[in-house]
Amino acid sequence: MKVLILSDIHGNSVALKEIIENESYDAVWFLGDLTDYGPNPDEVLEILKDLNPEVWVSGNHDYANAFNVDCHCGEKTHELSVYTRENITKKLLSEEDIKFLQNLPIRQEKEIGGKDFYFVHACPKDPLYGYMFDFDPECMVNEIGRKIEKDVIVYGHTHFPRNGIYGQIAYFNPGSVGQPRDGVPQASYGIFFSDEENFELRRKKYDVDEVVKRIKHLDLEKKYEDMLVKILIQGSV
Hints:
Blueprint: E1 2-6, H1 13-20, E2 27-30, H2 41-51, E3 55-56, H3 60-67, H4 75-92, H5 95-102, E4 107-112, E5 115-120, E6 152-154, E7 162-166, E8 169-173, E9 187-193, E10 198-204, H6 208-216, H7 222-234
Parallel strand pairs: 1-2, 2-3, 5-6, 6-8
Antiparallel strand pairs: 1-9, 4-5, 7-8, 9-10
Helix pairs in contact: 3-5, 6-7
């Protein structure tokens, strides 16, 4: 089985469509953050519902919209996050959409090929907000300090792709579909080949100009419009 792994789409339906229309897959895992920053969170949500991911966890931005709380994201993008939440996401999502987000889990577990997989948006210790740019053993405890013993950790949140092994633990971050921040302005995603128990990172070019055009049609404050466009064009904050 070939699994498509997506994370951090952030309202960028153009990038999402480029992937799903040009990639083959048997199942989908989505690691959270379909909302904020980008111009089409409502469209992204509908596409994801159609994809019916067998793994779907809430991201910190999804949780913020669902329960009207702060996203606790990084300092460089926090102000932009709050602005786009109020001026894009909340204007486009319906009450039904919000209720859907409220019912998303913040973690999921699956046994695949005899191995225990652990799915979160951020890191196991802090599944909504903790940043794990590379594997961190201190992240492998739960809320009461008990060690989390899993074979595979699949996560997102950082917008930086990672594929590695720490001791006996495999860890994989597909990066960001809609807002890559590692300096490569291409949609980032992952593939898991279950028969081979192998992860693969992939990138795909998409029509950045189209997303910029959609942002410019939103009549945002120039300061925030410029910030969004810069991130998309440069692939970095």
